[in-house]
Design goal:
Blueprint lengths: L6 H12 L4 E6 L6 H8 L4 E6 L6 H16 L11 H14 L6 E6 L1 H4 L6 H11 L7 E7 L2 H9 L11 E4 L5 H10 L6 H11 L3 H4 L8 H10 L4 H9 L7 H12 L7 H8 L4 H13 L3 E4 L10 E4 L2 H10 L10 H4 L3 H17 L1 H7 L7 E10 L4 E11 L3 E7 L6 E2 L2 H18 L4 E7 L4 E2 L10 E3 L1 H4 L4
Parallel strand pairs: 1-4, 1-5, 2-3, 3-4, 10-12, 11-13, 12-14
Antiparallel strand pairs: 6-7, 8-9, 9-10
Helix pairs in contact: 3-4, 4-6, 7-15, 9-16, 11-12, 16-18
Length: 478
């Protein structure tokens, strides 16, 4: 499989490869997002040494595998003993690199770095010494450090206040595929699905390449979801149990936060989470939330007109949300297979949330469809409980524009063009009135519909709805 998309990331890697100095590049992103594949494919001609950390591996196991890997690089030129620690391991790597006569930049790829830094191994100290004393003093070394434990990579490497402080020359956070890249991926695999079916798969797999790679030729979206989530050996049924344990040392706490957020569509504040969980200190929950955000499971939004302390945390990883809604606790072989669930009222209700998450992830495509991609904007949500003067309301997404317009976006998931009824038109008007009343904004408000098949225009939408966005526009390249 050749690389799909990743143009910006490839450009950054090529810049590092062709620079006139040694480079230390940090790549991170959630499990299964394609970090290793990107680096191997983009730099396969220049890679001279690659080592991957062992999950739950001991120092002795790491040293043995490191020595075996290094033996391929030295190609039998001389015998080296198995190193006793990481200081010896990096000294041996230094010796071998000095023997390489190529004038091209030598690329060293250290994958799953957090797994190398076992307790009392002093890996980071040894690696920092290797970079500061050897690699950075040359011009022909490019080291790529990579890890799925995004929070560990951020705190221990990218934002390190010790020996690696300001040593990272480039940072790449690898995101899941967008809809356009997902479509390209399926085309390369010769999987024929229309954009609505691709959108359905995206709403439960969230653009994670390795998950999408499990879809088979000749399989419908319903069949793929049924096999991967609801069969006894379903890959995406089993994946959940490994996902958090491989990313976080104390994953039970992270899973508890995810479980709570999966039950609240509108999200929760930090204080609400502390109250519900009860056992965490304020500092403890802050760390967990930061780790979940950096790993791509949740997102923080600041409601319109509020400040950072009013942040709302939402579960925006659709795979995790889908698992909690339909898979957790379900029995294998029950009559509740996906084909039946997909026709239920429950699915149509939940899919609205999944489609909303999808639209937020494709905010650049939304802005392009509105022809405001060149205007400074800020996307937000808004809700108010209301009072005796005005009833409350909730707005899925609003886009506050520097040109004096605010798009009030209604996100609706449906299998046909969405129809505005008289009652629904009045509901939108009431939302806008409530928003204007409580925020006191003077901006012009543009009611905007985002729906897979757009809008079925009628007397209630004509002259009222100002913008309509469909999935064709969400598949656009930006």
């Amino acid at each position: 499989m050749e690389l799909i998309g990743r143009a910006i990331e490839i450009e950054l890697l090529q810049e590092a490869l062709t620079s006139d100095k040694s480079e230390l590049v940090a790549v991170y992103g959630r499990r299964r997002v394609g970090k290793t594949f990107l680096i191997r494919e983009a730099l396969k001609k220049e890679l001279v040494f690659q080592y991957s950390g062992l999950y739950m591996g001991t120092l002795e196991e790491h040293m043995n595998i490191f020595a075996q890997t290094l033996s391929h690089l030295r190609n039998g030129m001389w015998d080296l003993p198995v190193p006793k620690n990481w200081f010896e391991a990096f000294r041996q790597l230094e010796m071998v690199l000095k023997q390489l006569r190529t004038k091209k930049k030598k690329v060293i790829f250290l994958d799953e770095l957090p797994w190398m830094a076992t307790h009392k191994s002093r890996f980071l100290t040894a690696f920092t010494h290797f970079w500061n004393q050897f690699a950075s003093a040359r011009k022909d070394i490019m080291i790529i450090i990579c890890g799925s434990a995004a929070s560990w990579m951020i705190n221990k490497v990218v934002k390190d206040k010790g020996g690696l402080h300001n040593r990272i020359t480039k940072t790449i956070r690898l995101e899941p595929f967008n809809l356009h890249e997902t479509e390209l991926f399926f085309k390369k695999k010769k999987i024929i699905l229309d954009r609505y079916k691709i959108t359905q798969l995206y709403m439960v797999m969230d653009g994670i390449p390795h998950y999408l790679d499990q879809v088979r030729n000749g399989e419908s979206a319903v069949q793929a979801i049924d096999r991967l989530f609801f069969s006894e050996q379903g890959f995406l049924r089993q994946e959940y149990h490994q996902l958090f344990a491989s990313l976080f040392d104390d994953s039970e706490k992270h899973r508890k936060v995810i479980e709570l957020l999966s039950q609240k569509k509108q999200g929760m504040s930090r204080e609400e989470l502390i109250e519900k969980i009860g056992i965490f200190s304020g500092g403890g929950i802050s760390k967990i939330l930061e780790e979940l955000m950096e790993s791509g499971f949740i997102s923080r939004s600041i409601p319109f007109g509020k400040t950072l302390k009013d942040s709302i945390f939402k579960l925006t990883d659709n795979y995790t949300a889908f698992y909690h809604k339909y898979v957790a606790g379900s029995k294998i072989g029950s009559n509740k297979n996906w084909e039946k669930i997909a026709q239920s009222a429950s699915w149509y209700s939940w899919s609205g949330l999944a489609f909303e998450n999808l639209c937020m992830r494709h905010i650049q495509q939304v802005k392009k469809a509105l022809r405001i991609d060149g205007i400074k904007t800020e996307a937000a949500t808004w809700h108010h409980k209301g009072n005796e003067e005005m009833q409350g309301a909730q707005i899925d997404m609003l886009i506050h524009r520097a040109d004096g317009i605010i798009n009030i976006c209604e996100i609706k998931y449906s299998e046909t063009p969405f129809t505005i009824t008289k009652n629904y038109a009045n509901e939108i008007r009431m939302k806008m009135a409530s928003f204007r009343h409580f925020t006191k904004v003077k901006n012009t408000l543009f009611p905007t519909i985002i729906a897979p098949y757009g809008l079925n225009e009628n007397i209630y939408s004509r002259g009222f709805i100002q913008n309509v966005i469909d999935i064709e526009q969400l598949f656009e390249v930006v």
